[in-house]
Write the structure tokens for this entry.
Amino acid sequence: MHSDGHLHDGGAWFEPMLLGSFALVILIYIGAALYSGRRYKKWPLSRTLFWILGVMSAASAIVGPIAARAHMDFTAHMVGHLLLGMLAPILLVLAAPITLALRTLDVQSARRLSRLLKSWPLRIISHPISASILNIGGLWILYTTGLYGAMQHNITLHALVHFHVFAAGYLFTASMIYIDPAPHPLTFKFRMIVFALSLAGHDILSKYIYAHPPSGVMKEQAESGGMLMYYAGDAVDLVLICILCCQWFKAARPKESIAI
């Protein structure tokens, strides 16, 4: 794969700013959790840990050695994709940031947030089908067109692609497992069907990458990256499947009868 050192060097000046932003996001969450714990019952420590790990996963894909190597190594790029677009979203969704925000904000601000979550634009993009198209469809566009090669030469495009990968991954995960309140909940069966189709689309893409390297990627790296996308991606998806099945089992379990 062709290395574009100028892209990395040109963006190196704001790496400390990015690291500071990630640290600030963690501190804000911890502060909100402590504040919420004083007003209501204690915020679960596990959710705080999920948030910290999720932010760290996303950060490691954008700054640091993995991000630096991703400009010249497609396998490292794929590691970043898995961290930013799959692992980080699961961890952050499990941290229930919307629930924490609703518990922390004042009444008027919480109501505004609730109205925003129920608005038709968010209802559309957070629907499992729309979220799947944004997530899997975006990856097909990235790896089967000239977009992947172009992003290596344009730092703005590079940032936009990374933002899309994360945002689409988060929307997809949140549309599959309901940890935060779901303004427009859908059935488990429907979500499972959409998830299965999305998983197939992801696996087919990984095989396509293996056989048809993206622009500027050597065959050996494409094969390594495609295999990593297939096997590691399925491992992360397995976690999501387990969570979804556990939620389905709990929801379907008969309620204990109350003695009169």
The radius of gyration is 20 Å. The CA atoms of residues 151 and 157 lie 5 Å apart.
